[in-house]
Amino acid sequence: MARRSDTDRWLFGVTLVLCLLGAVMIYSASAVTAQQQYAHSYYFLARQAVWLVLGLLGMFALMKLDYHRLREPAVVYSALCLVVVMLVGTFFLDKSHATHRWIRFGPVHIQPSELAKLAVILYLAWFLNLRRRTPTSLEFRKHDLLQTILPAVAPILVCVGLILAQPDLGTSVDIVLIMMAILFVAGLSWKWVAVGAGAALPALFALIYFVSYRQARLLSFLHPDSDPQGAGFQLLQSLIAVGSGGFTGVGLMESKQKLFYLPEAHTDFIYAVICEELGFIGAVVVITLFAVYAWRGLRAAFNAPDGFGRMLALGVTAMVLCQSLINFAVVLGMMPTKGIPLPFVSYGGSSLLAMLLATGVLLNVAQQAGSRTMVEA
Fold first, then answer.
1. For the chain, how far is it from start to end, CA to CA, in angstroms?
2. DSSP codes joined into one string, 150-182
């Protein structure tokens, strides 16, 4: 086994900065709402802090655990089966916000679809590593359709189908994007990617066009002014918040849109509050932090000592990058409104826990990638 190098301080540091920034902004965006609903302005911050501590403990544990131990079939299948059972279990519980997305254990709320992202990355990295034709990559051929591609994507599509039924289109699309990124880096030809995209587009169109609330979101995205008090309200309030920040912002805790104007201000639209309070400077700083995360994640993937580590690192990086880009695009009015939290920053225990656990694995890959770089040097 390769000797470990020091922890990637850039990756570790940017993760902590994003988490701390998230804690500050969650309090800023939710204090008034929490005071009115729960008579305690620290309600959401306190809950997020508990998940942050649990996530950091998990991150430190996985950072010290050799990632090669995750490729044991018992670990892979246990993770995948547990996620599927949890996804199925949500349909036997009461709805929340007209969806079956959460499992509740008293005050603890778990969203299995967030954990499904980790299981998908782990399964694909393990399965594709078994099918590799060279020590570092795969070479897909025509006969690999039945032997490699379909067995690789079938369990993923089961998870996607269950998440779609909750319903949660945004997370389903996010998982598909992660899957395609891993398959492409593993060696899947762009022609197969084009075929998959061609097959997915009609299904995506049907899921939007034939579901009234999704169709309304699309129309409000194209013409938000046509229904400013209805379907277009959230997008318009988000754009007002972003525009109100100017270059330096109105000041921390001084946002006006969070005062019951902007829905989900501390969750999916927290970036709008950041733009309003910290201005263009704060908005660029947040984007820069995610760019640094992507840089270090891709560096760990390309320098990983084996194919399994490469695909694990690529999957984690793709998960964080895709989700952050989607959130930015929604808040800035570049995509239809969808409930995708900003990684590490938005309020949400399941998302924060999943992101920190994934980062722990990525840090371990980066350690061993650093060892390999030093040996080659």
1. 18
2. HHHHHHHHHHHHHHHTTT-HHHHHHHHHHHHHH
SS (H, E, C) 79-123: HHHHHHHHHHHHHHCCCECCECCCEEECCEEECHHHHHHHHHHHH
Tokens representing 125 are: 């990295």
Dist. CA 233–CA 363, nearest whole Å: 41
Angle among Cα 75, 77, 81 to the nearest 5 degrees reads: 120
3-class SS of residue 254: coil
Rg of the chain in Å (alpha carbons): 21
Query: For the whole model, what pTM was predicted?
Result: 0.91
Distance, in Å, from the CA atom of 190 to the CA atom of 58, rounded to the nearest integer, reads 36
Q: CA 19, CA 359: separation in Å to the nearest integer?
A: 12
Residue with tokens 């246990």: 78
- Please list, in sequence order, all residues whose beta carbon lies within 8 angstroms of the beta carbon of residue 120, skipping any fewer than 6 positions away: 156, 159, 175, 178, 179, 315
Angle at 52 between CA 46 and CA 56, to 5 degrees: 155
Instruction: State residue 335 phi and psi, 5-degree precision.
Output: -145, 155
Q: List the structure tokens of 98.
A: 């007209």
pLDDT of residue 297: 96
Quick: pLDDT tens for 299-335: 999 999 888 999 999 999 999 999 999 999 999 998 8
Q: pLDDT per residue over 184-241, tens digit each?
A: 887 777 777 788 778 888 888 888 888 888 888 888 888 888 778 877 888 999 999 9
Among the listed residues 203, 225, 199, the one whose alpha carbon sits nearest the alpha carbon of residue 214: 203
Q: Measured between alpha carbons, how far is 120 from 155 in angstroms, rounded to an integer?
A: 8
Classified as helix, coil or strand, 259 is coil
